[in-house]
Write a structure and sequence with these properties.
Layout (H helix, E strand, L loop, with lengths): L1 E5 L3 E9 L2 E10 H4 L1 E6 L2 E7 L10 E8 L2 E6 L5 E6 L7 E10 L6 E5 L10
Antiparallel strand pairs: 1-6, 1-10, 2-3, 2-9, 3-4, 4-5, 6-7, 7-8
Amino acid sequence: MFTVLACKDVEVILLTAILGGDIAFILTIGADANTKTKLNLADELLMEIPTPEIVSCSEERTFALRWHDDAFELYQNGLNGRQIMAYSGEYLHMILSVYTIDMRLPSHVAGTFLISQDEGYVLLQ
């Protein structure tokens, strides 16, 4: 789970080991002026959904990611909260592991992150 205070463009980058190399899945919460959430595989758009005002400049918002079997899921307000995105596609079955999760904001966006452990393991390097 993570909590973020930002006006737009919250990026979560998942670096993954796949058969034959490494690739990056990029989740952007509050994309396009805080109107959409997008999932990309490097530069290829995999999924885009409308999520108006999903992040806020003045109010912390909590999210959770779940990656299991051949599905990627994003929840608002923790894993027991509202599911925002569910993606299962041709690339997910190739993933051997997710070895780095990076969270960032573009240089023109101010904000903060708080990462917490609800259950399971959290490894920060």
